[in-house]
Amino acid sequence: MPMRPADSPIALQLVVTTTDKPAHSSGLENEVVDLFDQLREPIFRYALSLGLAADDGEDILQEVFLALFRHLQLGRDRANLRGWIFRVAHNLSLKRRFANQKAARRGEAGGEMADTAPDQAPSAEEQMVFNEKRARLSAVLRALPEQDQRCLRLRAEGLRYREIAEVLGISLGSVSISLTRSLARMQRAEGR
């Protein structure tokens, strides 16, 4: 007999857990929902920036907040939940990207990002200038070491240096050096 969604192990775990401690779990659910509302777009963008397709980004988003619920439910550390969430999203995204690349090498579908259309500009000249500038900056970004790219993407999502260090598992000084070096390269490419 096929399992219905409510019969899945995760759904049963949540049902059993929430019926055991209704007040506590309700508070956890509200906390997770609030964090989801605050961070869903930045987490989704970050997953896409690591080379995932939109469908994979949505899956990662769900996995991250399910992991957060479990983390809080088990009474684990609550210090810097935002950094913890980005760290989990980072790790899950890299695992998914690796799995997609492996599947693509085997000839299976997946792992390809859809091309995005450039933004509409008011005139052809402005569009050309915009495209040239974007191409220059994209080339500089792709030429940066992977750690520098990740630091820039996380900073663009509003994370503080300390949070970036925690997410990537590097020192605060390394984050500072990476961002300073990367931003200087981006500014030179932009012609400032």
Could you please describe the fold and organization of this structure?
The chain folds into two domains: 101 residues, RNA polymerase sigma factor, region 2, helix turn helix motif (Rna Polymerase Sigma Factor, Chain: A); 67 residues, Winged helix-like DNA-binding domain superfamily/Winged helix DNA-binding domain (Arc Repressor Mutant, subunit A, Orthogonal Bundle). It contains eight helices and no strands. Helix 2 crosses helix 4 and helix 6 packs across helix 7. The chain is globular and about 55 Å long. 21% of the residues are buried. The N terminus is likely disordered.
Task: Describe the protein's topology.
Layout (H helix, E strand, L loop, with lengths): L8 H12 L1 H28 L4 H20 L7 H25 L18 H20 L2 H11 L4 H8 L3 H19 L2
Radius of gyration: 20 Å
Low-confidence stretches: 1-23, 109-121
Structural class by SSE content: mainly alpha
Average pLDDT: 79
Q: CATH superfamily of the largest domain, called what?
A: RNA polymerase sigma factor, region 2, helix turn helix motif
Q: What is the name of the CATH class of the largest domain?
A: Mainly Alpha
* CATH architectural type of the largest domain: Orthogonal Bundle
- For the record, the count of structural domains works out to 2
Helix/strand order: HHHHHHHH
Number of discrete helical segments? 8
**CATH topology call of the largest domain:** Rna Polymerase Sigma Factor, Chain: A
What is the general shape?
Answer: globular
Beta strand %: under 5%
DSSP summary, beta strand count: 0
Q: Gap between N and C termini, in Å?
A: 65 Å
Main sheet makeup: none
